[in-house]
Amino acid sequence: MLRRLRRQKHSRRQVLLARAAGPAAILGAADQAVLRFLRTRAHGPVTEAAMKALGLAGEYGAVWMAIGLGAAAGDERRRLRWLAAAGAAPAAIVANYAVKRSIGRERPVITEHPPLARAPSKLSFPSAHATSSFAAAAALGRVEPRASAPLHALATAIAVGRPYLGMHYPSDVLAGALLGAILGRLIPGLDEPPASSAQAAAPDRNLP
């Protein structure tokens, strides 16, 4: 009886060790390591202030709505498309919250390095800042492709700021960026419409 109990205890230990060394545990450890690195490295008054400012700008998609509305005010031809793209950020936040509720992951806690910002919810996965930022960058970039690179650079800076401030795991940000990129591509009618068939078929008057 005693031998059988020892064998069971040994087998349970082997199972636990195998699980601990599995892919999920490895990814979780990497997630924690990157979070701790971003939360504790390259910090100072200037960089922290910049990241906090980016976080505030991305709150509720404010900066993205401002960009879309500003572009709509100055571009009458594409006004409706700019307005539709401006709505990408708040729409993405709604979708993000639905996913957050279903996952239920809470925000990270590093006891000796508390978060440097506040959030209205304890839910963490995926990051709403990353979701709304990449959704808006994708949507606005479809209206004006030449602005796509700087828009995505701003989205990346906002997203990186979340683990930097201790508000999200890096995996929260990656998942949010992916979700946002998909949502930004799903909004219809933002791309430049193709030239009409009549224009395409019109003869070139410059030809002899």
Commentary on this structure:
The protein is mainly α and 208 residues long. The chain is 69% helix and 0% strand. The protein has 10 helices and no strands. The longest helix is centred in the first third of the chain and has 19 residues, at 2-20. It is globular, with a radius of gyration of 23 Å.
Low-confidence stretches: 196-202
Give the termini separation: 102 Å
Q: Strand content of the residues, in percent? A: under 5%
Quick one: how many beta strands? 0
Number of helices: 10
User: Helix coverage percent of residues?
Assistant: 55-70%
CA gyration radius, whole angstroms = 23 Å
Q: Any idea of the CATH class?
A: Mainly Alpha
Give the structural class.
Answer: mainly alpha
What is the makeup of the main sheet?
none
Reported by name, the CATH topology is Vanadium-containing Chloroperoxidase, domain 1
One letter per element, helices H and strands E, the order comes to HHHHHHHHHH
Characterize the overall form.
globular
Q: Name the CATH architecture.
A: Up-down Bundle
Number of domains: 1
User: What would CATH call the homologous superfamily?
Assistant: Phosphatidic acid phosphatase type 2/haloperoxidase
- How would you state the average pLDDT, rounded? 85
In short:
The chain is mostly helical and 208 residues long.
Write the layout of secondary structure elements.
Blueprint: H1 2-20, H2 23-40, H3 45-58, H4 62-74, H5 79-86, H6 88-103, H7 128-143, H8 148-164, H9 170-186, H10 197-201
Helix pairs in contact: 3-8, 4-5, 5-7, 6-7, 7-8, 7-9, 8-9
